[in-house]
Design goal:
By secondary structure, the protein is an alpha+beta fold. The protein has 2 domains: 36 residues; 99 residues. The protein is 28% helix and 24% strand. A 4-stranded antiparallel beta sheet has the order 1-2-3-4, with helices on one face. Strand 2 and strand 3 form a beta hairpin. The protein is extended, with a radius of gyration of 23 Å. It starts with a helix and ends in an 18-residue tail after the last strand.
Length: 152
């Protein structure tokens, strides 16, 4: 019994020393480090607001959500697309391009759409993705009031 306990203690000690050696070899990331200088560097290279790939992803997510949960609304087209901020929160944060415009729905109504294109927040951190809110259709109030939380 004593030998088993001693063996367990020695194995645990060996694991802890190996972990400590591994931990000391890593670079410490200070909160004041710029995003580009961190372990996974950011380039700030995100697509433009009016890029067709960005609008296609926004349309896909909007149509999917509406079809699945709320009803027959579908995105038809966009206009008045404009960038309202780029890295608005500073260089220490993940690069985001903030955009705003109008979306025409299949019922003929126009709504303001606010969205951000975010670097390395897509699938497994390999690519960009889009975070969005359509004014008047934020039914669960995730970006309340009136999509303000989707803007810089």
């Amino acid at each position: 019994m004593r030998r088993a306990l001693l063996r367990t203690a020695l194995v645990s000690l060996a694991c802890l020393t190996a972990f400590a050696a591994d931990a000391t070899g890593r670079r410490y990331v200070h909160p004041a480090d710029r995003a580009e200088e961190r372990i996974i560097p950011y380039s700030g290279n995100v697509p433009a607001c009016e890029d067709p790939a960005v609008l296609d992803e926004l349309t896909s997510w909007f149509n999917s959500r509406e079809e699945k949960f709320w009803g027959p609304l579908r995105a038809v087209t966009y206009d008045r697309i404009a960038q309202i901020g780029f890295r608005s929160w500073g260089d220490d944060f993940i690069p985001r391009r903030f955009c705003s415009g109008r979306i025409l729905l299949n019922d003929g109504s126009f709504h303001r759409v606010d969205y951000s294109v975010r670097e390395r927040l897509g699938l497994f951190g390999w690519t960009w993705n889009v975070n969005w809110c359509v004014s008047g259709l934020d039914r669960n109030r995730a970006y309340a009031p009136d999509c303000q939380m989707a803007r810089p």
